[in-house]
Amino acid sequence: MGISSAAEWFLPVELMAIRIESGRSQRWIANAIGKHTNTVGYWERRERLPDAANVVAICRKLGVDAERTFFLEHVAEQLNTSGIVSDLHQRNIFIVERAEQYYGVLIKVLTRYIPGLLQIEDYHMGLLPDPMGDPTPKIAHWKRKERRIAAWEARTNARSTFIIDASAIADLDRLPSRSRDKQIQRLKEIDARPNCEVQVMQGPPLTPHGFELFLPGGAPNAGPSFVYVESLDQSRHIEDAESLALYHRVVDDLTPRVTPIGVFLE
User: Fold this and answer.
1) pLDDT at 132
2) Which residues of 43-65 are buried (b: 16+ CB within 10 A; e: fewer)?
3) 157 vs 178: CA distance, rounded Å
4) Which CATH number fits domain 5-81: 3.30.230.10, 1.10.260.40, 3.40.1260.10, 3.90.550.10?
5) Against a cut of 0.85, is the pTM above it?
6) What number of other Cβ atoms are within 10 A of residue 40's Cβ?
7) How far is residue 179's CA from residue 158's CA, in Å, rounded to a whole number?
């Protein structure tokens, strides 16, 4: 069984990110967990891979929150697999968030909702599901999404394509008119950005779930190509070439069915 390339890329990148966020040095980390400084350097340069116990030890020494620690441990435990699979309680979008910051090509095909990077707060709070009926987690999720949006918008060299189902545009009528207009303006503004396209697909979907395709696209710190797919109770980071080719084919098949957002709204 091979090593998950996505996990192999994500773990070192994320460990270095949390160390830098904490303001600590590699030497400090090494002393804190009883390792040689060179070992921490090997991990961050992807020359060696830390096991789950060392990942958790680093997170605890740096005071990383429980959600992020849990997911990093989960990824470390799946290093020796062909792809990262997460159940309802394990799944998270930390890898997607990091890929949005590092990869050269992003293609997001969403069948039910406006993509997170394109949402405004009113859309997030008003139209996204809230199964627990408690707004507190939803507010926290929006704050996280704001940081994610800011990190992506700070980039100027990534090519981003967003393909949205027409039904998601129609759902905007459920918002107050001012919020609807603001969300539509947001879509138009993103479409006008360099290297960005917002397109609308019509007709029956070609896949039962939306998906997000990440390609290195020549970006120096990107990892391997992968697809992120989220169903009702599971998420998968798909890496094998045969499966990736299927998703590429879906994107190609969608080409004659999509309309630029500006043309669609006219």
Assistant:
1) 55
2) bbeeeebbebebbbbbbebbebe
3) 32
4) 1.10.260.40
5) yes
6) 26
7) 28
